[in-house]
C-alpha cells in the first residue's frame, strides 16, 4: 500500500534526489530543472502549487508536483518513481490521485510536457485519457517534444 505525503522541508531533498536520477540518465539537466529541484518551496509551493511524495513500505519511492498554469489548470511535473519500484502500479496510483486531487481543487484540466522517449510514461498518460496537443513554441523545457492534456470537466 502506498501513501501520498504532502511537501515538507524534511522531505525536500527527496524531490531533488529522485528526479535528478532520470533527468541526468535520459536528458540534459536544464537550468529550469535545477531551479525547481533546488527550490520546491519557492518555485512551486509559494506559487500555489503542490509537491507530493510517495511512501511505500516506509520508504520514499516517488514524487511529483502540480504547478498552477492558470486559475483552473495544473501542470503535472517532475513525476518519478524509483527504478527499483517501477512496474508495481505506483505510476497508475499516482495518476488516479492526481486526477482526483485536481477535481477536488475544481481544476478544468491537467497538462504535462514530456518526451516520446519515455514510452511507458506516454502509455500511462494515454491510459488516463491524456491527449496530445500542439507543443507551444515557448515550452519551458528544451527536451519536451510532446504536450498532453486531460480535461476534467
Instruction: Spell the H/E element sequence.
Output: EHHHEEEHEHEE
CATH superfamily of the domain at 2-107: Gcn5-related N-acetyltransferase (GNAT)
* Category from helices, strands and their pairing: alpha+beta
What's the Cα radius of gyration? Answer: 14 Å
Provide a descriptive summary of the structure in words.
It is a single chain. Helices cover 33% and strands 31% of the residues. With 153 residues, the chain is an alpha+beta fold. The chain has a domain at 2-107: Aminopeptidase (3-Layer(aba) Sandwich), CATH 3.40.630.30. A seven-stranded mixed sheet has the order 1-2-3-4-5-7-6, sandwiched between helices. The N and C termini lie far apart (29 Å).
In short:
The chain has 153 residues and is α+β, with helices and mostly antiparallel strands. It is built from five helices and seven strands, in the order βαααβββαβαββ.
Considering the chains and any ligands shown, give keywords for the structure:
153 residues; alpha+beta; Aminopeptidase; seven-stranded mixed sheet; 5 helices; 33% helix; 31% strand; globular
Amino acid at each position: 500500500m502506498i501513501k501520498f505525503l504532502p511537501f515538507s522541508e524534511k522531505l525536500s531533498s527527496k524531490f531533488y534526489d529522485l528526479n535528478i536520477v532520470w533527468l541526468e540518465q535520459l536528458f540534459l539537466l536544464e537550468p529550469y530543472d535545477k531551479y525547481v529541484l533546488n527550490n520546491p518551496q519557492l518555485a512551486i509551493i509559494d506559487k500555489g502549487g503542490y509537491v507530493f511524495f510517495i511512501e511505500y513500505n516506509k520508504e520514499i519511492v516517488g514524487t511529483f508536483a502540480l504547478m498552477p498554469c492558470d486559475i483552473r489548470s495544473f501542470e503535472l511535473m517532475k513525476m518519478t518513481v524509483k527504478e527499483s519500484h517501477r512496474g508495481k502500479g505506483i505510476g497508475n496510483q499516482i495518476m488516479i490521485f492526481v486526477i482526483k486531487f485536481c477535481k477536488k481543487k475544481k481544476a478544468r484540466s491537467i497538462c504535462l510536457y514530456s518526451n516520446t522517449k519515455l514510452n511507458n510514461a506516454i502509455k500511462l498518460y494515454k491510459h488516463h485519457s491524456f491527449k496530445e496537443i500542439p507543443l507551444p513554441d515557448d515550452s519551458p523545457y528544451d527536451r519536451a517534444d510532446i504536450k498532453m492534456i486531460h480535461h476534467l470537466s
